[in-house]
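for the recovery benchmark. tokens below, seq after
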């Protein structure tokens, strides 16, 4: 049996080869991982508008989709089944979906209701004239969609940790939304997110609010959870006695779900990062903010997000340049600080080895 590209034992493992961060053929081959579960929207984003086009999903997968809140929340194709016209371009509260091109009309559940000038068409309408429905899963008010049959998201691993948070009641705050372009491969952004090892060196402000010695990482199938402890006197979660971390001063929970979703929970609410692969040399990162208690937003680890983001981007772009070096290929992992990066690389290497 051939040796794994990334060894299971982190103590002897080497990182992914540098070509994974710039080779276009590898970049293209790994795009298939994005057709699985993707974050769509929070309940609060469907209150003002029951129909919302998921433009970020199209940027990630190339597939136009909408999320619709009718009798239940569903995800539908945003393409008319007649000639392929986009149905919805802006969030709205329409009671039906009507194509602007030839007038085909759909119910909010996706069924075709009416089509002019088709009286003589034989075998019409059929199932294929309805809008395609995509799989949808909801966790604590957060909606996820998938464009392929895939394994369930790891809620069983997360519920014990996050049950105390009333995420359903959070409210989307558009002033916290950001859209950044980074001159680096998307996997470098994920690598950087999955370890707190760099905090004392790259983030001096964040290092003042977190107790680096108490920073910890837990890995599970399909994800990584990093736990940041608050420095003495800094803002922290009010944990119930039944919580597994009760008695500890937790400043932040950093949750990554494969391949590109990052949920940063702070006492004030949730900051979400969505990583969008543009090319082997460029990445977009979207940020969404969902607020629970705005009075806490100017305190602790969750108060300097823009500063931390720019520091991360600068360091990632510098690392990306080095990936083209003729003398650097692979590094080693810190067994105590880079468990998350190792876990991610193991997932990617297994997918890659199945392809080739």
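predicted aa per position
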């Amino acid at each position: 049996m051939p040796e794994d590209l990334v060894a299971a034992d982190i103590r002897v493992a080497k990182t992914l080869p540098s070509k994974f961060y710039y080779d276009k053929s590898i970049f293209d081959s790994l795009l298939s991982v994005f057709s699985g579960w993707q974050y769509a929207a929070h309940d609060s984003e469907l209150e003002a508008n029951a129909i919302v086009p998921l433009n970020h999903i199209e940027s990630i997968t190339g597939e136009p989709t909408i999320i619709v809140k009718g009798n239940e929340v569903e995800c539908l194709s945003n393409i008319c089944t007649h000639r392929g016209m986009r149905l919805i371009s802006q969030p709205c509260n329409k009671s039906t979906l009507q194509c602007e091109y030839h007038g085909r009309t759909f119910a909010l559940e996706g069924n075709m209701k009416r089509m002019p000038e088709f009286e003589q068409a034989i075998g019409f309408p059929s199932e294929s004239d309805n809008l395609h429905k995509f799989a949808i899963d909801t966790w604590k008010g957060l909606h996820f969609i998938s464009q392929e049959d895939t394994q369930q998201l790891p809620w069983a691993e997360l519920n014990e940790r996050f049950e105390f948070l009333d995420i359903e009641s959070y409210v989307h705050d558009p002033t916290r939304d950001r859209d950044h372009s980074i001159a680096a491969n998307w996997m470098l952004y994920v690598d950087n997110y999955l370890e707190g090892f760099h905090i004392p060196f790259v983030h001096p402000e964040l290092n003042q609010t977190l107790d680096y010695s108490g920073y910890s990482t837990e890995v599970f199938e399909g994800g990584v959870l990093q736990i940041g402890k608050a420095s003495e006197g800094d803002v922290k979660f009010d944990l119930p006695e039944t919580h597994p971390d009760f008695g500890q001063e937790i400043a932040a929970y950093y949750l990554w779900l494969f391949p590109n979703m990052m949920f940063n929970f702070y006492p004030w609410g949730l900051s979400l990062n969505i990583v969008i692969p543009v090319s082997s040399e460029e990445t977009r990162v979207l940020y969404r903010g969902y607020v629970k208690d705005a009075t806490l937003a100017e305190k602790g680890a969750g108060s300097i997000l823009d500063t931390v983001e720019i520091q991360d981007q600068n360091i990632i772009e510098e690392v990306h340049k080095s990936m083209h070096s003729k003398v650097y290929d692979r590094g080693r992992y810190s067994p105590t600080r880079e468990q998350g990066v190792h876990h991610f690389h193991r997932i990617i290497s297994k997918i890659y080895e199945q392809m080739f």
